[in-house]
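Practice problem 4.
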């Protein structure tokens, strides 16, 4: 009796990329002081206004089965929000409420990939992307975006990897790099997607965290609405990471089939969480800006400290809650540098290699602790890099 190859092969026979994170948590459990700059978790928690509404609606009886596609008012609110942001007609029938962005990513690939299909994504990538593809029985195909090009994907490189592919997954604003894909980049991607008859899965969970430039959803581009599945989430915009509430926006036919998938997997999202998400969306843009503002402050802190040294380079983050640092001048790769920084200085960052080979020799720093300790830890990181690079 054997387990399936699909379940055993989710990590491709290698690491899941979270080794430094696990080691940092182990050290903390042992009583050691560790400053964690690893995961995209707000240092504030979900606003009490949202939690109180969740509690109130649960007590009022919304603890039974909820509508599997999402409760009608929430689907309508998400549709109106997306249409207002993009100008593309979006109806409740274009919306499926999911158990967070990760569940949406899995479902979207399930919708467009057959077993054995090639599913592309841009490298550097969020750590779960390859496993999500493998879990669906598809073949992960990373497409490198070079640091020398500011981690902007090259449509010609995407086209060169597209033979036999059925889908392309992109993420802008980007985790882990903080880069926002330009209109030129997205228009080039749209041309490739249409020329190669691909589905585009657009992970836009950081769309409220924009520091420089503007976010453009590729669904707005000509000919793209009918071949794009957009991933959204309340996790980053409203600090609701633990509530596990997100959505997929797509053509009605795709959403109809995705509802069948939801019926046969998690059977929908708890009603009291959906009610809380609906309430949270009524708090408006000022509330969302308040949730995002700490990361913009810390970006400024990081850029100021980076400008005072020359051992570490960075593509300035345009969005999201991370900065990607080039530490190749130290002579170490991202894994070795992150391990040294953790074991010797008690600072945990993610190796660039956790996010693909295009980020080799880099580290990702999550700007997710209060300003003063963030500034101190970032300065220590730069000092360590300078010492290793022989600039002390």
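Answer key:
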């Amino acid at each position: 009796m054997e387990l399936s190859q699909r379940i055993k092969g989710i990590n491709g026979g290698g690491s899941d990329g979270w080794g430094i994170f696990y080691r940092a948590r182990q050290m903390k459990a042992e009583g050691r002081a560790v400053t964690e700059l690893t995961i995209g978790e707000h240092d504030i928690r979900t606003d009490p206004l949202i939690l109180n509404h969740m509690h109130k609606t649960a007590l009022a009886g919304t603890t039974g089965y909820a509508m599997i596609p999402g409760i009608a008012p929430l689907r309508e609110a998400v549709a109106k929000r997306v249409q207002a942001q993009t100008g593309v007609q979006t109806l409740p029938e274009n919306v499926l409420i999911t158990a967070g962005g990760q569940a949406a990513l899995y479902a979207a690939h399930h919708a467009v990939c057959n077993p054995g299909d090639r599913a592309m994504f841009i490298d550097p990538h969020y750590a779960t992307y390859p496993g999500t593809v493998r879990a669906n029985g598809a073949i992960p195909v990373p497409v490198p975006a070079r640091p020398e090009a500011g981690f902007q994907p090259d449509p010609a490189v995407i086209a060169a990897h597209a033979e036999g592919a059925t889908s392309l997954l992109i993420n802008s604003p980007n985790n882990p790099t903080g880069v926002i894909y330009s209109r030129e980049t997205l228009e080039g991607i749209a041309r490739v997607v249409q020329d190669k008859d691909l589905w585009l899965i657009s992970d836009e969970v950081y769309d409220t965290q924009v520091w420089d430039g503007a976010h453009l959803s590729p669904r707005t581009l000509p000919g793209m609405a009918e071949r794009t599945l957009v991933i959204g989430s309340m996790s980053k915009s409203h600090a609701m990471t633990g509530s596990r509430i997100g959505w997929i926006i797509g053509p009605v036919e795709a959403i109809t089939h995705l509802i069948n998938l939801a019926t046969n997997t998690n059977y929908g999202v708890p009603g009291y969480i959906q009610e809380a998400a609906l309430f949270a969306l009524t708090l408006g843009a000022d509330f969302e800006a308040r949730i995002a503002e700490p990361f913009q402050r810390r970006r400024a802190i990081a850029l100021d400290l980076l400008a005072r040294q020359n051992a570490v380079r960075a593509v300035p983050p345009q969005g999201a809650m991370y900065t990607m640092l080039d530490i190749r001048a130290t002579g170490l790769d991202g894994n070795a540098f992150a391990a040294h920084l953790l074991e010797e200085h008690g600072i945990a960052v993610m190796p660039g290699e956790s996010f693909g080979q295009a980020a080799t020799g880099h580290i990702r720093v999550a700007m997710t602790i209060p300003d003063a300790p963030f500034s101190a830890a970032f300065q220590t990181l730069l000092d360590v890099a300078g010492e290793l690079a022989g600039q002390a």
